[in-house]
Amino acid sequence: VKSCNYLMNHLTVNGKFDMAISIYHQLKKGGWSPNVFTYTILIKGYCGQKKLVEALDLLKEMIELGITPDDFTYATFIEGLCLHGGSDQGYMFLQQCREEGSPISTFCYNAVIRRFCDEMKLQNAEDVLHDMGRHGVRPDSYCYSSLIRGYCKTGDVQKAQALHDEMVSEGIKTNCFVVSSIIDSLCKTGLAEGAIDMFQEFKDSGLFLDQVAYNNVIDALCKMGKVEAALKFFNEMKSRMVPDTKNYTTLLNGYCLQGKLEDALSVFEEMLEMGLEPDSITYNVLAAGLSRNGFPLDAVRLLNDMENKGVKADSSTHSNIIKGLCGGGKVMEAKAFFDGLEEKGIDTN
RNA sequence: UCGAUAGUGUACACGUA
Predict the structure, then answer these.
(1) Within chain A, where are the H helices?
(2) 3-class secondary structure, A269
(3) How far is the CA of A295 from the C1' of B3 (A)?
(4) Rounded CA Rg of chain A
(5) How does residue A349 score in pLDDT terms, banded at 50, 70 and 90?
């Protein structure tokens, strides 16, 4: 049964839920009894297909069969309900289950909070956060993270920071996910200096800051034109961990923005030497840099090269190519390229 | 490790002024 569950789960998350169901039927035919995991996976699958009725039927069925759903099971169904029936409905269901004495853990509250945040109903999310405490379930960093990120999205970094303070004062450990959300939001609301201070502060406090956190400050510095400062952080990061494609792309962009093509190219080469695969964004950044700084046709060449290497072009690539061709005086080619896209049915918005 | 959840990089267009 364990192996079947494993397989069914993988099929489900890869969009082959029908196959998972047929495994389930074979399992039952073979006289095996599905367990809580099996049912939870199936409920997840039905929720993914918006088939909430079927999901709920399974929940009832397992109870009748004496297989007691646990908090994962409830969380899975609640999340589906939030997603397809609205978070208000999901929360109502949670409350109902809670009154019936079903196991409602932080995972369940988490789902509701996250979905309320996705709907930008931040006040509702916060109410749930405080409500769970009254029912004896301690919020964790995931709960706060969703909410903090929600406020970051609205640009209310103050509120986000207040929540972060609240979280820490509740004795919940912070981590680089939460911190980097705030750092990024500070950067993007023009408070990069504060962001960098915060970064240093947490680093000095011994908190592990990963590639994403580093990238937040590297990007902010690059966008301010302070590539040299960005490079310092980049090197510091390199001494602690392996930079990823996004880190290299960010720094590459920094050099391109300054028109420092030589440096940009050497970053690109270093990245290749490190064995990292540039993705379409890396290529787009470099191409835009080349184009903007007087080498439009090289940009076009680079992007063709990219497609030859099997990296898929996106709409940004296309507009870079068109711009490159126009900038290189090859307006007719640009038009031909554009028409070619339309013929292939590619959205040229 | 048989089941759930959070953060970062590119162009353009758009909307408000």
Answers:
(1) 2-13, 17-29, 36-48, 52-64, 71-85, 87-99, 106-118, 122-134, 141-154, 157-169, 176-188, 192-204, 211-223, 227-240, 245-257, 261-273, 280-292, 296-308, 315-327, 331-343
(2) helix
(3) 53
(4) 25
(5) low
Which residue, counting CA atoms, is nearest to the C1' of nucleotide B8?
Answer: A212
**Amino acid residing at A145:** S
In one letter, which amino acid is A56? Answer: L
The answer to whether residue A318 scores a pLDDT higher than 70 is: yes
State, as a whole number of angstroms, the distance between the CA of A53 and the C1' of B8: 38
Contacts of A213 by beta carbon, 8 Å cutoff, 6+ apart = A176, A179, A180, A183, A199
Strand B nucleotides, any atom under 7 Å to a protein CB: 2-13
Q: pLDDT value at position A329?
A: 86
Q: What is the percent of chain A with per-residue pLDDT over 70, rounded to a whole number? A: 100
Q: What are phi and psi of A343, to 5 degrees?
A: -65, -40
Angstrom distance, A212 CA to B5 C1': 19
Confidence of residue A173 (pLDDT cuts 50, 70, 90): very high
Amino acid at A156: D
Minimum-distance nucleotide, CA of A153 to C1': B7
pTM for the structure as a whole: 0.91
Find and give the residue nearest to B3, measured CA to C1'.
Answer: A37
d(CA A43, CA A233): 45
pLDDT of residue A264: 97
| Residue A3, nucleotide of least CA–C1' distance | B2
> Which token pair is A146?
């969703």
Q: Does ipTM surpass 0.90 in this model?
A: no
In the 8-state DSSP scheme, what is residue A276? P
Helix-helix angle A87-99:A122-134, to 10 degrees = 10
| Å separating the CA of residue A348 from the C1' of nucleotide B14 | 14
- Please tell me the distance from the alpha carbon of residue A89 to that of residue A127, in angstroms, as a whole number: 15
Between CA A281 and C1' B5 the distance (Å) reads: 27
Residue A79 tokens read as 């999340």
Interval A58-111: pLDDT, tens: 999 999 999 999 999 999 999 999 999 999 999 999 999 999 999 999 999 999
d(CA A344, CA A340): 6
